[in-house]
Design brief:
single chain, Butyryl-CoA Dehydrogenase, subunit A, domain 2, 10 strands, 4-stranded antiparallel β-sheet, 4-stranded mixed β-sheet, Butyryl-CoA Dehydrogenase, subunit A, domain 3, 9 helices, 14% strand, alpha+beta, 2 domains
Length: 297
């Protein structure tokens, strides 16, 4: 896999996040993606990164050099730690995991082994621009994994509605579940389009939009799948609840979709931007509507 990552880094990263969501695995994929945007000195050889606990990725109210966050990957070796200063400035420090205060983090998904960590860093280097790129890379990865989880939720709902029979007919043939699953499918495809743009453009704005869409779609499709599957979907032996719980937990990393919706609304519709035209994310021309090539801006 290492050779594939070197030769096709973008495609490999996206495939890894998709596989992680589809098969409910836990790897160091997110850590490596975020670290790839940070310039870590060779002597530190960071194996992970501490993600801030606050929604927008910026922790405030801590003493100088202090940190408080979540470690989702390796619990050994040296990890990179973002330290947040005034005006959203960011420095990066490096701490040995054994020197931090840590405890297992209670999660919706008990198969995840995340740690709540805290401590302080003595030496840091300025990395504001690097952290913004790293957070965007994290948003793309998390959104991709969420989308894969959501696709599996829809597959589970469709399979159940096709096999479950009531009054002599599959429940999927009735209007209410059929319309609900059609709307869920539209959300999944809309998220896919935004993800395509996020991976193509690799900028902060498209990454934030993709994470918002992925989080909102996961929540909406979870509701549909739970409604279609009924009580069996809530039982421990059914696999539905694992995709629901994992998605809610992932959405909390680097800001939930609700948080980013609020932040994006303030950015686009604030008083200082009242005269600014809204950016175009994805557009189609008439040629595309007739089956020709798509034009995205």
């Amino acid at each position: 896999m290492g050779e594939i990552e070197v030769e096709y880094p973008t495609k490999a990263d996206r495939l890894l996040f998709q596989a992680q969501g589809r098969f409910l695995t836990q790897t160091d994929c997110l850590d490596r993606t975020v670290l790839s945007e940070l310039e870590c000195p060779a002597e530190h050889r960071a194996t992970g990164v501490v993600l801030p606990r606050t929604g927008d990725g910026y922790t405030t109210g801590l003493d100088a050099g202090a940190f408080d966050g979540v470690l989702t990957g390796s619990a050994e070796g040296v990890v990179a730690v973002p330290i947040f200063g005034p005006s959203r400035s960011v420095d990066i420090g490096f701490v040995d995991v054994g020197a931090m205060q840590s405890r297992p983090l209670d999660t919706f998904d008990c198969s995840l082994r995340w740690l709540h960590v805290s401590g302080s860093v003595d030496t840091t280097v300025p990395a504001t621009a690097q952290w913004r790129c790293a957070a965007s890379a994290g948003h793309r990865g998390i959104a991709t994994e969420l989308h894969a989880l959501t696709e599996e939720l829809l597959v589970i709902a469709v399979d159940h509605s096709s096999s479950r029979v009531q009054f002599g007919r599959p429940i999927g043939s009735y209007q209410s579940p059929r319309h609900a699953m059609a709307e869920a499918s539209a959300l999944v495809e809309g998220t896919r389009a935004l993800l395509d743009e996020a991976w193509r453009r690799r900028d902060s704005f498209s990454a934030t939009l993709a994470k918002i869409a992925a989080g909102r779609a996961h929540r909406a499709v979870s509701d549909v799948a739970l409604q279609v599957c009924g009580a069996i979907g809530l039982t421990a032996e059914h696999r539905l609840h694992r995709y629901v719980a994992r998605g809610f937990q992932l959405d909390s990393l680097l800001g939930s979709y609700r948080h980013h919706e609020v932040m994006l609304t303030e950015e686009l519709f604030g008083e200082e931007n009242s005269e600014m035209a809204l950016p175009t994310v994805v557009s189609w021309n008439r040629t595309a509507e007739r089956g020709g090539p798509r034009t995205a801006r």
